[in-house]
Amino acid sequence: MAVSRRLFVTAAAALVASRGTSLALAATAPGSVPFAEEPNFRIPVSPDDSADVLVRKASQVRPTARQIAWQRLERTAFLHFGVNTFTGLEWGTGDEDPDVFQPTGLDTDQWARALRDGGFKLAILTVKHHDGFVLYPSRYTNHSVVSSSWRGGQGDVLRSFADSMRRYGLKVGVYISPADENQYLHGVYANGSARTEHTIPTPVENDDRPDGPRFTLPATDYGAHMLNQLYEVLTEYGPVDEVWFDGAQGHIPPDKVEKYDWDSWYTLVRTLTPDATIAVSGPDVRWVGNEGGLARENEWSVVPVTEKDYGKTDFALSYDAADMGGRDALVAARSVADYVQWWPAECDVSIRDGWFYHADQQPKSVDRLTEIYFGSVGRNAVLLLNVPPDTDGLLAASDVTRLREFRERVDRELPADLTAGASVTRTPGVVTVDLGTEREADRVRLAEDIRYGQQVESFVVEAFVRGGWTRVAGAGTVGASRILLLAAPVRARRWRVRVRQARSAVRIAEFGLYRSQV
């Protein structure tokens, strides 16, 4: 099994940190639990575990409260915005003139209204992309809005974004790219420095910040730079609900890899904003494995994982494996896996072809977005839809319209639940609803009570038609959300879901029936 240095934060340590006292967080012995207050969200596995033991362990894994809250969001948004918006690149070089950044019509309230009206619950801003340009006035780099003449060097996109999202009822997420080609050009990123203890926040001249928590954490030179930026973002912009990392390295020579200080980064996030999910290179949420917005037909939230590179939660199987958590997958991964873990899938996709705004691109059709919705939210995942602001600092009118049309389409696909007020009968493995009168349905929505894990491996939906139970749909997994589209409307008074195979006792939390109005 992989061995790494793992950090954990106790409640007492977090309290000390909150009082502004220096907090030394030292590495624990290999094999220790990295998040001791959450012992059931990951369970150790061994190459000697039998298939039955692996399945039993997987059945015992439980999500954390933050993971449950995250899965309930269903629709989240990404906002790729930065110097690439003005250069036309998708991946910047790090040597851009900051003055190219000129969003003279910036209106983050417009972003928030459009996302709210599109049915989104959380938005993630690219605070820093791989080029290293930062959308707030950081104390640790001049490659930021302070070096642009926009708003006289006084602009702060992150401040405006966070305020607007909260004003319109959306949660706030931040993406801070681990890769930083500007810091590479300055000799900080991938410079081969050893991990040493660093004081975070690192003191700077004329620092006007009030006293706050201080940390001593192991990091490379660049790892400390990231810690300082994380500290700024997580202490000066209000509550943050999601911190999004990827694992990109940048356009640097292959022998100049920066090994990221994941353990220290995770520790800082966990201490400063304990309710925030850490995705996608993080312990709370994983990448689904493609950028098309589609989950697997049977998507498991409990999957085998390894720990690499100073505590990074990573895939035990290939990130694009067809089966990520089924019985065969658990067996296939047992020789390399450290844990089975609650690690649900996030499906990222852009409303346009590119991640950053390009004037010659148009948004995806409503039909395509609806297919993506059913292929993500309908398959036990959360949709992360990128909507890039343009060079004026606005969401394009066509994108705003498409977001509203998308929400209206989903509302028509899943109008009022026909089971509201119905009589419900539960027996082991079966939930039956009696609508009181025959009703026509062509959409079925199911959910397990994931507080008790993910257990369903196979199920069928049946309707009582012409004196007998008739199969109308079926699939494998359920998880937090499963939506089935029937080939044709079925008219019946009594309906049931029958579990055919499960890992442990099943608790169905939702059995909804709908008649599409499309």
List keywords for this structure.
eight-stranded parallel β-sheet, disordered N terminus, 518 residues, six-stranded antiparallel β-sheet, alpha/beta
Describe this structure in words.
There is one protein chain. The protein has helices spanning 11-18, 51-59, 65-71, 84-87, 108-117, 157-167, 181-185, 221-236, 262-272, 327-333, 366-376, 397-413, and strands spanning 22-24, 42-44, 75-79, 122-128, 171-176, 196-200, 214-219, 242-245, 277-280, 286-287, 302-308, 312-315, 339-342, 345-350, 381-386, 423-427, 430-448, 456-465, 468-475, 482-502, 508-514. The protein has 518 residues and is α/β, with parallel strands linked by helices. An 8-stranded parallel sheet has the order 9-8-5-4-3-15-14-10, with helices on both faces. Strands 16, 17, 18, 19, 20 and 21 form a 6-stranded antiparallel sheet that branches. Strand 16 (423-427) and strand 17 (430-448) form a beta hairpin. Mean pLDDT is 93; it is low at 1-34.
